[in-house]
Write a structure and sequence with these properties.
The protein is mainly β. 0% of the residues lie in helices and 61% in strands. Strands 2, 4, 5, 6, 9, 10 and 11 form a 7-stranded mixed β-sheet that branches. A hairpin with a 4-residue loop joins strand 7 and strand 8.
Length: 122
């Protein structure tokens, strides 16, 4: 019933910028938290940044000052502006929606996007 569709990944040189977008669609009433996670080869998935419906944010220490997360609640869309990219930012980036209330369903749910590849060359 709910889909997250990411876009904006790609190949960029170190020091460059990319902007990721993720749109949630479906019979959504509201979403508590939206965010981005990433997984590099051979590593566990890790939090990059999250944003609540009231606009409060949380960032991984490794991206503070370089990445900015934002959200359009009316469009159920979350963005990740990435600047000063480093080779160690290379990973598959996954969009996440948590605390999702869906029409006709009880409870709150968590959804993941399919992932988008970000590759930073040195």
């Amino acid at each position: 019933q709910v889909q997250l569709v990411e876009s904006g990944g790609g190949l960029v040189q170190a020091g460059g910028s990319l902007r990721l977008s993720c749109a949630a669609s479906g019979n959504i009433i509201r979403i508590n938290t939206m965010g981005w996670y990433r997984q590099a080869p051979g590593k566990q998935r890790e939090l990059v940044a999250v944003i609540s419906s009231d606009g409060s944010t949380n960032y991984a220490d490794s991206v503070k000052g370089r990445f900015t997360i934002s959200r359009d609640n009316a469009k159920n869309t979350v963005y990740l502006q990435m600047t000063s990219l480093k080779p160690e930012d290379t990973a598959v980036y996954y969009c996440n929606a948590d605390g999702v209330v869906v029409n006709s369903l009880l409870g709150k749910y968590r959804y993941w996007g399919q992932g988008t590849q970000v590759t930073v060359s040195s």
